[in-house]
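Pasting as-is:
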Amino acid sequence: MVPRAEFDSYYGRPVIKAPSWSASDIAGYFFLGGLAGAGSVLAAGAHLTGRTTTATALKISSLTAVSLSAAALVHDLGRPGRFVNMLRVCKPTSPMSVGSWLLSAYGPAAGVAAATAVTGRLPRAGAAATGAAALLGPAVAAYTAVLAADTAVPAWHDAHRELPYLFAASATAAAAGMALAVAPPRETGPARCAAGLAALAETAVTRAAERRLGMVAETWREGRAGTLLRTARALTAGGAIGAALFGGRSRGAAAVCGLALLAGSACTRFGIFEAGIASAQDPKYTVVPQRERLEHEARERERQQGAA
């Protein structure tokens, strides 16, 4: 009795406004934050197991990465005062607010951990800072996924369940790659294992996200985003396999595999960023999923009525 609902946008214009974020700033912010957070976890493990060269190198890389990450965020915001203004309140329901406080707590911890490792002074304070950075590291690595998924961008929001796990796996691959690139082969056993697990997890989570996204997954497979994500999978898999086979034998091979893992992680973050922009700019990825959800709800009502 009721005509079929039709979904369309006004003159084919985008239904939502694409984020005005700069790709180099925000995608770089995603990547560098992940590298820093996961690197602190690996650094704490290396610190506890006596791999001092690896621990020191990862502490320095984490401090460098979080500093560059904060600089990229401030650059996108336009002026430093805007970041400071975000610290005037703490709103647990806001990923941006929580993330700002995470960075503010994690940055000094990573700085103290790196400074004490380099100078050799205040070892107890360094150990405490290393532990604090490791505790905050997973949240720093993954909260940017929650930040992206909290928007209305279809390629990010519709994958809100998988995106944090994907970012965490990508961050782990990056941190393992950094360890392989800077540490002696005799100390990289845990990093090689982490790289393999991260590559498997990233592949599995990506497939799960694409199944959930439905037709929106086209933005993950086509165009610039598709090219970046395919490159990321190849680099991550190649780096993990190469590290498992040759990373413990040759410093040069380990460095090459580490760089491949780092590049793969960066491509993953930039690819997901590009997919989100593409999904926001094309109205079909907003209106067609609405139709699909409506049809799914209708089928569910019919099934429940039939069962009753």
